[in-house]
Amino acid sequence: MKILVLGGGGFIGHHLINKLVAEENTVHSIDLVYPHYNKSKAHRFTIGDLRNPALFEDLVDEKYDQVYQLAADMGGAGYILSGENDADILHNSAMINLNVAYAFKGQPQVKIFFSSSACVYPMHHQENANSPNCRESNVYPANPDSDYGWEKLFSERVFMAFARNYGLNIRIARFHNIFGPENVYEGGREKAPAAICRKVAIAKDGDEVEIWGDGLQTRSFLYIDECLKGIQKLMESDFTSPVNIGSDRMVTINELAQKVISISGKRLSIHNITGPEGVRGRNSDNRLILEKLNWKPDNDLDYGLKKLYFWVLSRIEEDANEFVSGVTGGLNNE
Question: In this structure, what are the phi and psi dihedrals at residue 226, rounded to the nearest 5 degrees?
Fold first, then answer.
């Protein structure tokens, strides 16, 4: 197949491209940046601003079989919950999604995948850390906890409206905390698993690992390989309503941190501090995807955390070695 991946410089997009190319598809990608840690395997990678509708003028002539829309202005809790980035998040992501929907209207032969988010679910269904309600049908009355969630919900409606009015052939997934190697782990946009792995990796025996909030807030986390399997099952199906893709294995953030500490083999303690927490509890409700697609992810949190931790550790050690080498080289040249 001939496939276009929008947002191929991001974490999920980069892994998706690797999978699609390995399956012998021809893959093109567009993003503002190249993948941060490894070169893209896309057959063609265009650096471009997807907020610009002119960028889409030639895409409709390429005769793509599938389009994956993964591009978004996003980050972890420190980015999307601070309130300082709301205008950019709303504007940037909405513009991209409006452009995608408009560019491919009237082309039912092209399957369009849109990556929505668990952040669309109402706050009042996520106040109990032990029993959040993230069933797909309970997204309304709408009340997301962030403008990031509001934009995702708006864009879901954009794609569904274009499907009704212009024949857009859509698939919509609400992702729940996808993680794995090549996650951004520093810089302010990192999410909890990668941030915790970084903190543990740089800590020494006896140190404390800082965790935002009391650490009793709950989440579920899905390893990237399982996410890609879920995407593939959805794209192979005829199901066009939004569906969760995530794990239903819920843990507290303190438990997540303790798992990473155990993987590291270090003697560390957890120090809970004030910081953005988001909703009290969130977990993927997987009843609909099991019913409609006969699919459920493996409970691979521990496996995935090991992969992520040792990848982050290797990156930090590599950066440290390059720094030492640079300093030594500078001294030798004096």
Answer: -70, -35
Residue 91: pLDDT above 60? yes
On whether residue 146 sits in a domain, the answer given is yes
**C-alpha–C-alpha distance, residues 244 and 172, integer Å:** 9
Could you give the residue numbers annotated as active site? 148
The angle that helices 147-166 and 86-103 make with each other, rounded to 10 degrees, is 10
CA distance 26 to 21: 7
Give the strand pairing for 250-252 and 218-220.
Answer: antiparallel
Q: Which amino acid, one-letter code, is at 236?
A: E
Q: Distance (Å, rounded) from C-alpha 222 to C-alpha 226? A: 7
The residues pairing with 175 across neighbouring beta strands, listed in sequence order, are 117, 245
- pLDDT score recorded for residue 58: 80
Is 76 inside a domain boundary? yes
Question: Does residue 50 come out as left (phi exceeding 0), alpha (psi in the -120 to 50 range) or beta?
Answer: alpha
Rg (CA), the chain: 20
What are the beta bridge partners of residue 30? Answer: 6, 46
Q: Is residue 319 part of a domain?
A: no
Report yes or no on 284 lying in a domain: no
DSSP characters over 121-162: S-GGGSS-TTS----GGGG-S---SSHHHHHHHHHHHHHHHH
What is the value of pTM for the model shown? Answer: 0.94
pLDDT digits (tens, 9 = 90+) for 240-272: 999 999 999 999 999 999 999 999 999 999 999
CATH of the domain at 27: 3.40.50.720
CB 158 within 8 A of CB 116: no
- Report the distance separating Cα 237 and Cα 209, nearest Å: 43
- Which of 4, 75, 10 lies closest to 40, judged by CA? 10
Structural domain range at position 138: 2-179+222-245
Q: Which residue has the tokens 């843990």?
A: 251
Q: Please give the tally of structural domains in the chain.
A: 1
Q: What is the pLDDT of residues 179-209, one digit of tens each?
A: 999 999 998 889 999 999 999 999 999 999 9
